[in-house]
Amino acid sequence: QDLGHQVVLVVGDWTAQIGDPSGRDQSRQRLTADEVKSNAQTYMEQFFTIVDKTKTEVRWQSEWYGRFTLSDVFELTARFTLADMMAHETFRLRWENKQPLSLMELMYPLLQGYDSVAIDADVEFGGTDQKFNNLVGRQLQMMLGQRGQAVLLVPLLAGTDGRKMSKSFGNTVDVVDPPLEMYGKLMRMSDDVLPDYFATLTDIPEDELVAMQLDMAQGRLNPRDAKMRLAREIVTMFHGAEAARAAEAEFVKVFQRRELPTDMPSVPIAPGATVLDFLVTSGLASSKSEARRLIQQGGVSVDGQKLTDGMSPAIPGVWRVGARRFVKATD
Fold it and tell me: Which of 94, 139, 168, 190 shows a CA-CA span of 20 to 30 A to 275?
């Protein structure tokens, strides 16, 4: 967009009801049309945190698949063989392991690939897991008389702990995270994934990244300082330079100097509430069993004093759970 190119976002409202089988050893649960639309709105909100919405063309697969006939389906499927589809590693492994593989899933690459024909794409962006699907799109274009698109693949980013990025692992950095939360998550990342985050998410020159890795390996650069630079870069990308500076100042204040945060929620103590009660009602714990565990681990304090008895009365003050959660309790 910065260079004047037209960005087209294709919402896969048809293929999403099948679910991309890439990298999965079993079929996905099918989504309803309403679920797809709801998910699409969420994805677009995230997409447009980076891409200029006013300069983006949004297309829905239903524009072309809504008028597809059985004859069109035959015409599409006749262009590829079962052997072609078995070049997809996921399909091949499921076939060899005698795991279920539906005809609908085998059609997924064709349906996604035809999107490139429908919008006459000249470049398609995707993760490395989309290589097969993107190349099917390129082949279809050339079969149908279009110029084959270029395919630009980007590596899949690992989670902050080095495992696959997943909410269930608690290792995600979400594009809609507020500045301080985004900054804090990046500061807690494993040193091992730091180079990949720099290479994938920033415009720092490669020679500078190589020098940075060498400095960290030889002890001339503290990984903490490199993480602070990364966190500034990424928060600036999503929220602006001023928000990044404020997030860094607050992080240093709370997590390095061990001072209280500038802002924290204020929660009144209900009459007769115990420590366990308040931990749950304030949101510091999801249940009383979690609250007991936090107390046993020494992770709960009020005004710097650790709490050891969950049945004692809740008292006013600044409650802290772990390193990151604060609540001001009031009468």
Answer: 168
